[in-house]
Amino acid sequence: MDIYLDSADISQWTLPEGCPPVVGVTTNPSLVFQAGRSVSLSTYGSLVDAASGHGMAQLMVQLPSADVAEARVWAGELQSRAAKARLQLTIKLPCQPGWRSCIEVVQEIGLPVLLTGLSNAVQLLWAQAMGAQYVAPYIGRLAADTSHGERDVWALMQACVVAQNSSGPRPGPRLLAASIKSPNVLSRLMALGAAAATLPPSSLVEWSRDAVTDVAVAQFERDIVASQSLS
């Protein structure tokens, strides 16, 4: 499974020992705002440079508007900047039909597309028909949503993996799972065969240690000391 950092805060991109290697960074307008920055082409350009400077292989950024002309300008300029930085750029767009023209523009420019906020199987089929390279369901939000009755989140995740592994003239999009609230959820995604997950740096740092491991190590240390009296 590929791991991405879900953060626009560059100061959080350097992780301590014990965290898994990451292949890149994902952002969206909310994350940019939370990092205290404006959602602008200038900000996105600086994120391209920062990702390259941190040795990242990939950066995923979300366009802020469904305006086709603006999408063409932003995607084109960011593609040029990413190419100079030798960084793979993916454009994130909402998984909604109103964004279809933007999806097509990004594809014309030659950039991979991630459709974010995918929430049901019909949207998954549409994303596959659109030729998206990734889909990003928000697992935590879906599990908490009861507005239309209880959702079978894991049936949707399994459907995403089946689509991801399909062959043919138009392979399915890869599952990049988001809004992961616990290491148990991450384990289930790994067991299902999800291609990727995006996590806040704080979660990776927190989950890199576990109380059960710490207790076992402490017991080893006590027993090592106690064993010296047997010599």
Task: Describe the structure in your own words.
This protein has 231 residues and is of the alpha/beta class. The chain has a single domain (2-230), classed as Aldolase class I (TIM Barrel, Alpha-Beta Barrel). It is built from ten helices and eight strands. α3 links the parallel β3 and β4. The longest helix has 17 residues, at 68-84. It starts with a strand and ends with a helix.
What order do the strands of the largest sheet run in, or round the barrel if closed? 1-2-3-4-5-6-7-8
Low-confidence stretches: none
CATH architecture: Alpha-Beta Barrel
Task: Give the biggest sheet.
Answer: 8 strands, parallel, barrel
Q: Would you tell me which CATH topology applies?
A: TIM Barrel
Order of helices and strands: EEHHEHEHEHEHHEHEHH
Could you say which structural class the secondary elements and strand pairing correspond to? alpha/beta
CATH class: Alpha Beta
- What's the pLDDT, averaged over the residues? 94
N/C terminus separation: 47 Å
Instruction: Please compute the radius of gyration using only Cα atoms.
Output: 20 Å
Number of helices: 10
Count of the separate structural domains: 1
Shape: globular
Strand content: 15-25%
